[in-house]
Amino acid sequence: GAVTIRLRSLQSVMERSLRRHHNPEAPEVVEEQLPTYDYNRVVFTEEMRKTYKILVPQMSPLHFSLLDPVLKNEGYNFEMLPAPTRDDIEVGLKYINNDACYPAIIVVGQLMSALLSGKYD
């Protein structure tokens, strides 16, 4: 769990440090050279409420069960994802930085597992 994440993060930092010290001629990455990640925000419309499905990751069964009647009452089409599995956590670690908090890794893992399953698009 959380210990594994911290150990992977430490390993990653150590590997970067070793590469930097063993190859001092390696070019430094200047901030201007980094890619930008701009995107156009899509507004969630009334029509989307009827046709789109919202995937809700399972973080706290007790609290998230309260979302079910609220979202249904508001007319949202949603699906509460099942409790996270060990595989979801591994998928989360594959798609998120090791320095992210454990709940973020779980959420990303659940959502990516759901999308990769082919059940959703």
From TrEMBL:
<protein>
    <submittedName>
        <fullName>CoA-substrate-specific enzyme activase protein</fullName>
    </submittedName>
</protein>
<dbReference type="InterPro" id="IPR051805">
    <property type="entry name" value="Dehydratase_Activator_Redct"/>
</dbReference>
